[in-house]
């Protein structure tokens, strides 16, 4: 139900900093990982109840009760939790054969279709689920995602507003509304919604991340830094938050903290080329030329198409 880690569709900036060819200084331009990092994880899985969702458990249930849809739905859910999406699909189809318009299965299937970019199918499934169960929060949540992926931002907002009419304390819907208002460029509204989500659930790392982005867009850098720090405290492996935190440290000229944050990113995701490039830029500011050169080389090792890193390395070599 939460915004979680990015999927393959993440759009990652090539560089958070850029070296000026004229002045040999870093420009103050930076780019945070954007909301597109998280949108795919707005998706909700549906369980029939909270219980162990192990594949072996639900395989046993299916064997014992082969005519009951719930076991197939939960077995499909268990595979989805393990990112074994193709294995999940036939179990969802079997569940729907046994119980057409089974709301939980339709919502789970909608997640599969959104992950595959099949948004029209997901919209149809969520709408069918809502016809059967109008107050089904997970269906509203996923329908909002599908609308957003189709470019229907206002329809997505409407879905989350409907969800909040059903459950005003639905932190995920408040968080998602905040992201949608960011997309519309309404950053003050975004901050308000996300802060409301955090009042309900302070231990919501993705909401802290999103708050950091919204605050940075309104120029409240110190508050944005605090939000990203809290995201990392709650989720130490949250490299996207570490990366944005590093960029803000760099803009604040807190270079030691920036280096530490970039290094934390690279411990988690060592092939992330933009972090290597930005680390090189910081080393260059500090006149650590060999470290800068090594960092640019690493950036190009993992992404030969990183134009900023290539330009930075070439200019560095020309200056020697």
**For the residues shown, what is the average pLDDT?**
84
- The name of the CATH architecture of the largest domain is Alpha Horseshoe
Largest sheet: none
Shape: globular
Q: In percent, how helical is the residue content?
A: 55-70%
Which structural category do the helix and sheet elements fall into? mainly alpha
The whole-angstrom Rg is 22 Å
What's the CATH C level of the largest domain? Mainly Alpha
Give a description of the structure.
- The protein has helices spanning 55-64, 69-81, 85-98, 103-115, 119-132, 137-149, 153-166, 171-183, 187-200, 205-217, 221-234, 239-251, 255-268, 273-285, 289-302, 307-319.
- The chain starts with 54 loop residues before the first helix and ends with a helix.
- Helix 4 (103-115) runs antiparallel to helix 5 (119-132), helix 8 (171-183) runs parallel beside helix 10 and helix 10 (205-217) packs antiparallel against helix 11.
- 48% of the residues are buried.
- Mean pLDDT is 84; it is low at 1-30, 35-42 and 47-53.
- It has 16 helices and no strands.
- By secondary structure, it is an all-alpha fold.
- The chain has two domains: 1-31 and 239-320, Serine Threonine Protein Phosphatase 5, Tetratricopeptide repeat; 35-238, Tetratricopeptide repeat domain (Serine Threonine Protein Phosphatase 5, Tetratricopeptide repeat, Alpha Horseshoe), CATH 1.25.40.
């Amino acid at each position: 139900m939460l915004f979680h880690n990015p999927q393959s569709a993440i759009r990652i900036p090539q560089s958070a900093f850029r070296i000026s060819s004229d002045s040999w200084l870093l420009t103050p331009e930076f780019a945070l990982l954007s909301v597109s990092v998280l949108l795919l994880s707005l998706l909700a899985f549906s369980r029939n109840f909270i219980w162990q969702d192990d594949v072996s458990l639900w395989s046993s249930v299916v064997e014992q009760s082969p005519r009951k849809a719930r076991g197939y739905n939960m077995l499909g859910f268990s595979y989805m939790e393990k990112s074994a999406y193709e294995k999940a699909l036939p179990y969802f189809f079997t569940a729907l054969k046994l119980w057409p318009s089974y709301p939980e299965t339709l919502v789970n299937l909608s997640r599969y279709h959104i992950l595959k970019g099949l948004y029209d199918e997901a919209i149809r499934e969520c709408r069918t689920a809502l016809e059967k169960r109008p107050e089904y929060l997970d269906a509203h949540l996923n329908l909002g995602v599908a609308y957003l992926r189709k470019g229907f931002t206002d329809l997505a907002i409407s879905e989350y507003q409907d969800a909040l009419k059903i459950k005003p304390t639905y932190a995920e819907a408040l968080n998602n509304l905040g992201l949608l208002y960011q997309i519309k460029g309404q950053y003050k509204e975004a901050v308000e919604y996300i802060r409301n989500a955090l009042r309900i659930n302070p231990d919501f790392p993705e909401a802290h991340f999103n708050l950091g982005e919204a605050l940075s867009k309104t120029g409240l850098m110190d508050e944005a830094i605090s939000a990203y720090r809290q995201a990392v405290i709650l989720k130490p492996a949250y490299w996207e938050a570490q990366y944005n935190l590093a960029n803000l440290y760099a803009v604040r000229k807190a270079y030691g903290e920036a280096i530490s944050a970039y290094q934390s990113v690279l411990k988690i995701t060592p092939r992330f080329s933009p972090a290597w490039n930005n680390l090189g830029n910081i080393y260059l500011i500090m006149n650590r030329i060999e470290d800068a050169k090594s960092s640019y080389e690493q950036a190009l090792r993992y992404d030969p198409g990183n134009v900023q890193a290539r330009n930075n390395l070439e200019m560095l070599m020309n200056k020697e």
